[in-house]
């Protein structure tokens, strides 16, 4: 056949057409983990949502105070440092402690619930390391 390999690939069926989609798609346990009914429920108490956003609200208040005291440049510098520190993480299948972020926020001097019994939202992640890394990098 004189058409070459390019025309053969063009005529073949792409793999995305063979995968299930829509209402008949299966749940990918390796990529998404176990499902939790608790996460799908509404907050049980009015303060639960406030507690989930506590660190975000505290950061916003601290930035506003810093901006009023020292000016816009101090807030922008600190936000750039936060953004740079958040990007440094371990591989997807390992828990990242974010020590540098805790140091910037001043949380390294306090002992909290998550230091003793670990944060419940950061439970162990089970899965194949190679698959999880390729999924995080967008190769799958």
Automatic annotation (TrEMBL):
BP terms from Gene Ontology: proteasome assembly
Q: Which domain of life is it from?
A: Eukaryota
InterPro entries linked to this entry: Ump1
Ordered alphabetically, the record's keywords are: Chaperone
Q: How is this protein annotated for GO cellular component?
A: cytoplasm; nucleus
Which PANTHER family does the UniProt entry name for this protein? PROTEASOME MATURATION PROTEIN, PROTEASOME MATURATION PROTEIN UMP1
Q: What protein family does this chain belong to?
A: Belongs to the POMP/UMP1 family.
**What name goes with this protein?**
POMP protein
Gene for this chain: Pomp
